[in-house]
Structure formats: structure tokens, C-alpha cells
Write a structure and sequence with these properties.
Length: about 250
Amino acid sequence: MTEETIISPRRQKGEPQLPGIGLFCVNPGDARYLGGRAEKLGASRHFLFNSTLQVISGNSGAEGVFVAGPAVGAPMAVMTLEKLVALGARKVIVYGWCGSLNPALRTGDLLLPTWGLSEEGTSSHYPIQGRAASSAALRDDLHRYLRSEGLTIQEGPVWTTDAPYRETRAKVAGYAEKSILGVDMEFSALATVASYRQIDLAALFLVSDELWHQSWQPGFKGKTFSAKNRRILAALLDKTIVKGGGAHGQ
């Protein structure tokens, strides 16, 4: 039995009724870039904590899509997702970056996380059955779309932590031995809340750095990485617009 909470997320007077499907970018730079593209498509802008919320209206009675973010770290990401669900979100594609724990996953590669190992402090407050996992149907749909765009994708579990400066060599090696491919700061909490609120959520990560070397290998400052990052953001926006029946969904 779930205990009654004191504060519940809800849609307040004057707040938008969201389309069912949308994009949630956790990184500030990605959210700014995607927000700029959404503005060019005539998106309306709304308040959302420390994030930005934009809605691209659909044509001919179609539903449209929303774009939200940033929200770094599990607590802020969960607050944001809770509000999106309260406003009507039912299918959410999360986009962010992750570190690689495995030589098979290199900077610039794409990872669709299947489930998350939680070392963050938020998801334990949401009782669910089973693992914090992405929606298999939404993940498969995203995988097919990315392959149709000529992109190569890997799938596997990730480790989510609140403490990126406490990612020790022993933890990286230990989790890699358990076939955990990447590390991020939000996924396990977001997947937990999605299960709790009974919505579909899948995530896509661009590998930004490699932790399995003798020394940390960041790759997110390179021009090649930046170009691929923007290519993925544009592709995801195009996908959700088509899926949601928005401005370019004909």
C-alpha cells in the first residue's frame, strides 16, 4: 500500500496541457540548442522550474510535441519529469551524455540504456516492482528509427550516480565486469518514476568520455563530438514531430 503524500504534482491554472509525447534534454547546452530549433518551428514557451518547456503545436488536429530541459542530477530531473507527467506527458524520450565503462563503448558512440543500477538518492522513494528499466516498446521504436538514420546503437544497463567525483577505479572495473556499459546521473531515477507513474520512457545517451583507461579520457570538447551531438538532437526532434503529428509530421 502506497502512503499518501502531502504534496502531489498537478496541473495548475494557466499551465499548458501537454502533448502526449516529447523530448527531455538533461544537459543545459543541449536544451538551449533544441529550444532554439523549437522556436524556429513556432513553439510556445512555458515555465518549468529551472528548465524550459516548449510546445510545438500539431497541424490539422494533430497532437504536437513538447521539448523540455535542462535538469541535471536525479532530484531535479525527477521533479521536472513529475511535472511533465502532471501536465499530460505519456511518452518521454530522454537525451543526455554518459561515460563509458567498457572498451566496446567509445566516445561518440550511442547507447540505449535498458535498465539502471541506482546509486542516486531519489528513486528509493518510489516503490516499484522490478528494475528501473526503459520502456521496451519505446526503446525498440527509437532503435529502429536511429538505424534508419544510418546510426549504430548499442543497448545495455547503466550505473546512475549522484557523485561523479566519486566514480572510483574499483567501481568502474567492478560494474564493467557485471556488463554495465555506462554511467550517468539521472536515468535510474527517471525510469523508476516513469514506472511508478505508468508512462513510457526511453533514453538515448551519447558517450562523452571514457573511464576505463588508466586516466580519464574526456571527449566532449571535440568538434566531431559536437557535430554528432547536434545531429542526434535534430534527428530526435524530427522523430518526435513525426510521431506526434506536429509541424513537419505530414
